[in-house]
Design a protein that fits this description.
The complex is a heterodimer of chains A (about 190) and B (about 100). By secondary structure, chain A is mostly helical. Chain A has two domains: about 5-75, Orthogonal Bundle (Rna Polymerase Sigma Factor, Chain: A); about 85-185, Winged helix-like DNA-binding domain superfamily/Winged helix DNA-binding domain (Arc Repressor Mutant, subunit A, Orthogonal Bundle). Chain A is built from nine helices and no strands. Chain A has helices at about 5-25, 30-45, 55-75, 85, 115, 120-130, 135-145, 150-160, 160-185. In chain A, helix 7 (about 135-145) crosses helix 9. The radius of gyration of chain A is 20 Å and the shape is elongated. With about 100 residues, chain B is mainly α. Chain B has a domain at about 5-65. Chain B has helices spanning about 5-15, 20-35, 35-60, 70-90. In chain B, helix 1 runs parallel beside helix 3 (about 35-60) and helix 2 packs across helix 3. The longest helix of chain B has 25 residues, at about 35-60. The chains are: A mainly alpha (about 190), B mainly alpha (about 100).
Amino acid sequence: MTAAENTHDWLAEHGDYLYRFALARLRDPHLAEDVVQETMLAAMQGGGHSGKSSARTWLTGILKHKIIDQFRRQQRETSLETPDDIADDAPGMDEFFLDDGHWNEPPQSWGDPGSLMQQDQFLQTLQDCMDKLPKKLAQIFLLRDVHESDNEEICKELEITATNAWVMLYRARMGLRKCLELNWMGGH
Amino acid sequence: MLDCKHASRLVSQSMDRRLSLRERLGLRLHLLLCDACTQFSKQMALLQQAARQWRSRIENDTRVSLPDDARQRIAAAVALKTESLARQNPDQNLTD
């Protein structure tokens, strides 16, 4: 079988899965299509997988690299790091706390975790909240908490320091938390 | 004693790095005494869990598939690349 025929089979058999895998991380259908294409081209030139791993595992491994590349391009395009993105006391953070360091509005219980995860509405609200976050913060949240990249990889790929990564993740999670509390709890 | 602002930061960072002994003790003491930060800490755990749940929902949602036009475009790109590779290396047969 030629490499092209192989690739044809891979696309038929694993195309949907790879597309959804990419969509769950990049969020954008066109970007997801692009990385699936890059993966197929790389797989074709790679000639094939060997060893025990299945074709799907092998293709997913290639796709992960393409997704990280895409994140890196996006971060570069999303303006240079502004002090606001990384400053500890950036605007927007103060609203969460009073001057004495106490919560402005103390976090409330979200109820039973088990049933929460079963609710489409909760996950849909999370998705809506991700869309509302500043792009850079949404991206680092997707990389760390959705894709589960480790911090070393995030710092290397996004060219930021560990401290900056922690600050940006904190801000992303604080923003999502607030948004979930307003939009999900608010609906109950 | 940590304030809530500092404690919330440590809760978030504990998801990304190993806190120092001093930080861990300080945070534990604060959480013992502070209901709001205890709720916050639970929310952070839920948020992380929800992020993964959301991901696997999408990954396993068989109603979502690679659009046909994208599939055709990708197949065409592969065919084009195969041709150009064959031209570059006429001697080399692209077989397994």
